[in-house]
Amino acid sequence: MSGKIKIFADSTCDLPSSWIQEHDIGIIPLYVVFGEESLRDGVDIKPEGLYAKVEETGSLPKTAAPSPSDFITAFSPFIEQGDDIIFFSISSELSSTYQNAIIAAEELAPDRITVIDSRNLSTGIGLLVMKAVHAAKEGRSIPEIVEMLNSYKDKVECEFVIDTLDYLHKGGRCSGMQNVIGSLLKIRPVIKVVNGGMIPAYKVRGKKEKAMEQLLNNALNQVENMDNDLIMVTHTMAESEAIMLQKALQEKTGARQVSISTAGCVICSHCGPGTVGIIYTKKPS
């Protein structure tokens, strides 16, 4: 079938693979780079492999955006068959993915490719992608979908508990002394997405359960403001905690769907194992 809307996202959207297949979402991978080895996120390497390499080398990979030619290669078949494209990128504050997608769109078919700067990461992107997927299936036009997305983009709430400071230290985001003291005191930072960037929102001292309780309470305090269509619990090697949060959110929010997803390699390389987050959108004004 030609003339439809084809939806793409980059690999940091962290949507469950079953959803990607069911809704025929195109995924364009970012790269994780170990020395001279450049690996496509989710294609050439999965989180387990990334953690094994970090353990082996003692250092984190660099991450890199898809090139404009990567986008052109992915988009071209759909443009040629008459489809229009909506592409969602990780926040332009965090990566050059958005800029490279714009370059590709302008070269290939600027009037047929809409590039959305999600101003978010992980399933903060994924929530917007799913809203676009359902809107497209309802027959809404690209201008209508873009207008809808603009009403939600700054309403995405994305908050993660980091279980270990090791990856923040390896990535240069905290000093060796901060790492040692934080580990001794069992300090777990909470990262929040604000204005398209990641900021340390607060720190929780003590057992991980305490940090998880704070994360859950922060979300539950917003129940009246939540868009209760879909809430995501996203994690890196923290399945039991994710299931606990899923059950509590389903019971206490009355959301239509609370789903679990696992973060890909780009997110894992910054946050490390044991990270878990709650992501939802607030109701548009």
What does this structure look like?
Helix content is 41%, strand content 25%. With 285 residues, the protein is of the alpha/beta class. A six-stranded mixed β-sheet has the order 10-9-8-13-11-12, sandwiched between helices. The protein has a four-stranded parallel β-sheet with strand order 2-1-6-7, with helices on both faces. Strands 4-3-5 form a three-stranded antiparallel β-sheet, with helices on one face. Strand 6 (84-89), helix 4 and strand 7 form a beta-alpha-beta unit. Helix 3 (68-80) crosses helix 4. Residues 169-185 have low confidence and may be disordered.
Could you give a quick summary of the protein structure above?
The protein is an alpha/beta fold. The protein is 41% helix and 25% strand.
User: What order do the SSEs take from the amino end to the carboxyl end, as H and E?
Assistant: EHEEEHEHEHEHHEHHEEHEHEHE
Distance between the termini: 36 Å
Helical/strand content category: alpha/beta
Order of strands across the biggest sheet? 10-9-8-13-11-12
* Low-confidence runs: 169-185
Strand content: 25-35%
The number of distinct helices, counting runs of at least 4 residues, comes to 11
**C-alpha geometry:** globular
